[in-house]
Every structure is written in C-alpha cells, then in structure tokens.
Design brief:
With 267 residues, the chain is α+β, with helices and mostly antiparallel strands. It has helices at 39-47, 61-78, 118-126, 152-162, 169-180, 222-228, 233-239, 246-249; strands at residues 6-13, 18-26, 50-59, 206-210, 216-221, 264-266. Pfam families: NUMOD3.
C-alpha cells in the first residue's frame, strides 16, 4: 500500500490574495523557493510577499497528483487565476529521469517563450472536462473542498475575478429558465422576506468597508453600512470607492464625520 505522506499546496501572493502556484510534494517541498521552480514563480516570490497553504494532506502519491490536477484546472480555467504552473499538473506521476520532461528547463523546455493560443487553451480545458477529469464525480464528502469554507477576503477576490467575464448564450439561457421557476410562490424564499432582509438578500448590493489600516472592518448592504457609520445613503454613494479625506470631501460638519477619515466604502 502506498505511503500517505504526500500533500497538495498553493502559494498565494499577499498583494492580491490570489493563488499563483499549485503543487504536490512531501516533506518541506512546499516551502522551497529555488530548486525546481520556474522563472515566473521566482519572479513573484522575489518581489511580492507570499504565503503557503496546504490544501490537502495525508495523501498517496497518486491521490496527490489527482488533486493537483483538479486544483490547477479550477484555478486556471474556472476562476481565471494567472498561475505560474507550466502545465496542468500530473506530469510528475513518472518521476526522476524516467519523466519525459526531466532536465528540460528554460530554453530546453518545448514551451519556452511560447504563449498558447486561445484554441490550444480551449483544447487543454476540454481535455480535462467531464469524465476525463480525474476529479469527475467527486462531490460532497469526496470533494477536496468538502468542509472548507473560503475566507471572506478570498470570496471577494474570486467575485472580483469573475466580474465582467462574458457568459455564453447557453449559460444565459439556463439562467433565464431557472429564474422563471422562481416566480411568486415557486420561489423558495416566498413569505420569508424577514429572513433575507438587508445583507442576507443575495441580490443586495454589498458594501465592503475598509478601515484606516486597509483591513476589512465590515460588510453589509447600503442601509446597514449607512446606519452603522452614521452617514446618509446620499453620502455613501458620493464617497464610494474612494479613500475618504474629511478635510477634502466635507465642506461642513467635518467633526461629525471624523470617525470615517481614511476609510473606504467599496461596492
């Protein structure tokens, strides 16, 4: 039976809180910054503060490669993160000199200084789609993300990454059909208005409040933020997405709003 000493890890750049590398290893491999790392990985690590997160552990060698492939596929093709990984994972399943890519680094690598076309990227994505994906059917407790809840900051980053991405006609059609099944009493929230009031309403505009230290202090709908910080909805809309400077942004009642000096209401 294979030893369960392997794990899957990710490197996160702290300036954006987005993952930029996913790998598989054992021992202290996750924390290496030079040996076996490509130029893009080193460039990020040398210029940006980073952190390492162990995504899955206590795995066999084969399981670790499967999870590596799954995470790279999700991050690269679903969430659109710019990964430093040279491939879609799993190529290390044959290790050492038996691996066809052994020693082929830098200009010796077949993909050196080449950027895949959109057609190639699509083919790569399709090659991991459906039953061809090693994580196909692994839902619920079988999913590597089961029981893991993304932090608020990570969820916000994912939301920002997905904004503005065009939806296919098929996707739009499915959304439209789903909406038709949720009208009136067919809606699961029918009669539960009090339960989805304010920020609980998934359709409510969320306001993220950053304090003077640039940390997230509060997240809520417009009404909740206006009440908590004692400002009108008019002012909230006027000051949104800008770092507040009381001296600059207020012509009167400056002392009344000193408590939000240096704050930012992002929406």
């Amino acid at each position: 039976m294979s030893e369960r000493k392997y794990y899957v890890y990710e490197w996160i750049r702290l300036d954006t809180n987005e993952p930029f590398y996913v790998g598989k290893g054992c021992g202290n491999r996750a924390y290496h910054t030079k040996k076996g790392r490509n130029a893009k990985f080193k460039a990020i690590v040398n210029h940006v503060d980073c952190a390492v997160v162990i995504l899955m552990d206590n795995l066999t060698d084969e399981e670790a490669y499967q999870y590596e492939v799954w995470f790279i596929n999700e991050y690269r093709y679903v969430y659109g993160f710019d990964l430093a990984n040279m491939d879609d994972g799993g190529l290390g399943a044959v290790s050492g000199k038996l691996n066809s890519m052994y020693g082929r680094k830098g200009y010796l690598h077949p993909n050196y200084n080449r950027k895949p076309s959109e057609e190639t990227r699509l083919k790569m994505s399709l090659s991991r789609t459906g039953a061809r994906n090693p994580m196909y059917g692994k839902r619920g407790e079988k999913s590597p993300l089961y029981g893991r809840k993304a932090t608020l900051e990570r969820r916000l980053k994912i939301s920002e990454a997905l904004k503005g991405k065009p939806k296919s006609e098929e996707h739009r059609r499915k959304i439209s059909e789903l909406a038709k099944t949720r009208i009136g009493k067919k809606n699961s929230n029918y009669g539960n208005g009090h339960k989805i009031a304010g920020s609980k309403n998934p359709s409510a505009i969320k306001v993220i409040v950053y304090n003077k230290s640039k940390e997230i202090e509060f997240v809520g709908c417009k009404n909740e933020v206006a009440e908590k910080y004692n400002i009108s909805l008019y002012l909230l809309n006027k000051l949104r997405n800008k770092v507040i400077n009381v001296e600059r942004d207020f012509s009167r009642e400056k002392e009344k709003y000193r408590h939000i000096d240096g704050y930012e209401f992002k929406m």
